[in-house]
Amino acid sequence: MMPTTIREIAKLADVSSGTVSRVLNDDPTLSVTEKTRARVKKIANDLAYHHSANSQKKNTLVTVAIVTSMSEQREIDDPYWRNIHQGIKNAAQKQDIKIGPIIRLTDGLGKVNLSHFSAVIVTGDTSADAIKKIKKMNQNLVLVDARSRFSDIDIVQPDLSNMTERILNELHQTGRQNIAFIGGNNEQINLDGKIESVLTDSRTDVYEKWVQQHKKAKKMLVGNWTAQAGTIAAKQLLAQAQPFDALLVASDAIAVGAIKVLQEAGFVIGQDISIVSFDDLALVAYLNPSLTTVNLPQHALGSAALQQAKELADRDRTWTKWTTIPSKLIYRDSFQK
């Protein structure tokens, strides 16, 4: 009796041969219904179909899902997250790991079954309830730059708090007495795409603590993460009675909008006012004057997250790993130590 072929299974299941192959190899990136998966597997089982040695090899492929709380528009406005996702993909290509399409919680998780993946990487702030539900679907979970901490879940994060305090101290040491701050809030998303709560960023927390400890007036505005938000915040700061001679900004995108307003108001950046930001986007080195900023190694964050996800998928360890990636302050014209 001739062995059953994939083509025969495909004909009986009314799907393509490629779909049968991917279903039998548990490819989580295949977009078919659970009913179709079950039908294909039942027919293969009824016909006593056996994977070839090559199919067994394919079945060991590590597949990783990226789940993010960021919308596509947020990634356009703030390239930080896009660079992290690219870091994950670049590292995956080098290790023959398959990355599925980015799953955006802003669109809702829907019927996506995360249990089909070898591991899951969640980027951005997601509600604690959502994280717990994802953990139930897939134990191999890594969080990237999230405010929430769980004793049994891996995390990879940039060193934001220590760097923020260092910048504030250096600005103060150079004689800047009135330091203002423009930051952004982070929205915690549920699995249905709805906002559960709004969290302050860690840089905001550090700034508030620092001005209190140094008995300084708090000059702070917090909005979203766009250049337009920086424009609005800078205008509001200028409208206040309290002057400021230094400005710390939570991202380069926000800083670009703020700088435009300050220059139009007659400030000489780097002389009248020192400005420091975060992200080290390529364009800020070419501003006039160039922007002093913190290099957050976004590709490294993505690469580290993928490595931890692979370790979990391969069962290389049984303990939780929290990783902090150091950042670097890049001095340019807007602030020289």
From TrEMBL:
PROSITE patterns: HTH_LACI_1 (PS00356), HTH_LACI_2 (PS50932)
Single GO term (MF): DNA-binding transcription factor activity
Keyword DNA-binding appears in the UniProt entry: yes
Domain (HTH lacI-type): residue spans on this chain: 4-60
Pfam family, one: LacI
Keyword vocabulary terms for this entry: DNA-binding, Transcription, Transcription regulation
SMART domains: HTH_LACI
Name under which the protein is recorded: LacI family transcriptional regulator
